[in-house]
Write a structure and sequence with these properties.
CATH topology: Rossmann fold
Number of domains: 1
Bound molecules: adenosine-5'-triphosphate, magnesium ion
Distance between the termini: 41 Å
Number of helices: 11
Strand content: 25-35%
Structural class: alpha/beta
Shape: globular
Helix content: 40-55%
Radius of gyration: 19 Å
CATH class: Alpha Beta
Order of helices and strands: EEEHEEHEHHHHHEHEHEEHH
Length: 265
C-alpha cells in the first residue's frame, strides 16, 4: 500500500544572520493510512520545524530545505501556492498549540466556518454552512453549537477553542491531521478530552494522525507508532510497543524506560 506520507532524507536549515543553522537532517519515515503516529523529543529538537515543512506552512524564518516530502501524492516542498491552498483544509488538516492563533478574534465563528466551506466549495448558502458547522461542532463535543457559532473566539475557553479548531480543520474530512502539541496549553482534564476526540476521529473516520507531543502517556495510550527526534536527528522509530519494551537507542531507552518506571512506581 502507498503510504499517506513519505519523508525522505529531509534536511532543514534556518538562514540566520550568522549563517545557515542546521535544524534537522537525514529524516526518513513513512506514515500509513489510518495510523496515529507521534513525534517525540526534547524541546528544541526540531519537531515543529519538521511538521511545519511536512504541512508546508508559511515559515517565519528563512530556510533551506533538502530531500522530499510526499503527502498524498503531493510534493509538499515544491507545490505551487494555489494548489497548496486547495489541498490544505480539504485533504490535510493542521492544528497547533494555540487555538486562538487560528481563529479570527472579531469575526463571528459562523462566518469563519462559512469562509472555509465556500473557499473549498463544500456549501454555497449561509444556511447550508450553518447547518454543517452545527453538526460538526456537535460531533467535536460542543454542547450548544448555535450559541458558539453566533459568538466570537474570545468568548471561548481554551478547550472549547481547540474543539472549534479541530472542527474547522476536519470539516472537509481530510485524510490526514497534523497536530503540533495540540493540548499543551490546556489543563489536564481537558487535555484528555481533546486527545480522546482526536483518537476518535482516527478510529472512526480512519483519519491518519501525526501528532507532536511531549507526553509519553499520549504515545502509550493513543499511538500506533512513534518517531523519536533528538537534536535534529531521527534516532529511532517503530511501533509504540517495541519502543517501550525494547528501545534500541540510548536516548529512546532513557526517555521511554524512565516513563515506564514512573508509571509503575
Ligand atoms: N526564528 C528562529 N531563528 C533561529 N532559530 C530558530 C528559530 N525558531 C526556532 N529555531 C531553532 O530551531 C530549532 C528547532 O526548533 P523547534 O521549534 O522545531 O523545536 P521543537 O522540537 O518543536 O521544540 P518544542 O518542544 O519546544 O516546541 C531550535 O534549536 C530552535 O532554537
Ligand atoms: Mg515545537
Amino acid at each position: 500500500m502507498t503510504p499517506v506520507l513519505s519523508v525522505k532524507d529531509l534536511g532543514i536549515e534556518y538562514l540566520v544572520k550568522d549563517g545557515a543553522k542546521p535544524i534537522v537532517s537525514d529524516i526518513t519515515f513513512e506514515v500509513e493510512a489510518g495510523e496515529m503516529v507521534s513525534l517525540v523529543g526534547e524541546s528544541g529538537s526540531g519537531k515543529s520545524a519538521l511538521v511545519h515543512v511536512v504541512a508546508a506552512l508559511p515559515r517565519s524564518v528563512q530556510s533551506r530545505v533538502k530531500g522530499s516530502v510526499d503527502l498524498l501524492g503531493y510534493d509538499m516542498i515544491n507545490m505551487p501556492a494555489k494548489q497548496l491552498r486547495e489541498m490544505r483544509g480539504t485533504r490535510l488538516g493542521f492544528i497547533g498549540q494555540n487555538p486562538f492563533g487560528l481563529l479570527h478574534p472579531i469575526l463571528p465563528l459562523e462566518r469563519q466556518f462559512h469562509h472555509v466551506l465556500t473557499a473549498h466549495k463544500k456549501t454555497k448558502s449561509k444556511a447550508d454552512s450553518a447547518k454543517l458547522a452545527e453538526a460538526t461542532l456537535e460531533s467535536v463535543g460542543i454542547r450548544d453549537p448555535r450559541a458558539v457559532l453566533t459568538g466570537y473566539a474570545n468568548q471561548l475557553s481554551g478547550g472549547m477553542a481547540q474543539r472549534v479548531v479541530i472542527g474547522m480543520a476536519t470539516i472537509m474530512e481530510p485524510e490526514i491531521l497534523i497536530a503540533d502539541e495540540p493540548t499543551t496549553a490546556l489543563d489536564p482534564t481537558v487535555q484528555v478530552q481533546i486527545l480522546d476526540l482526536i483518537a476518535a476521529l482516527n478510529r472512526e473516520r480512519g483519519m491518519t494522525v501525526l501528532i507532536v507531543t511531549h507526553d509519553l502517556g499520549v504515545v502509550a495510550n493513543y499511538c500506533d507508532k512513534a518517531l523519536v527526534l533528538r537534536r535534529g536527528e531521527l534516532v529511532e522509530q517503530g511501533s509504540v510497543s517495541a519502543l517501550f519494551t525494547d528501545p534500541k537507542h540510548p536516548y529512546t531507552r532513557e526517555l521511554f524506560l524512565s516513563t515506564t518506571e514512573r508509571v509503575e512506581s
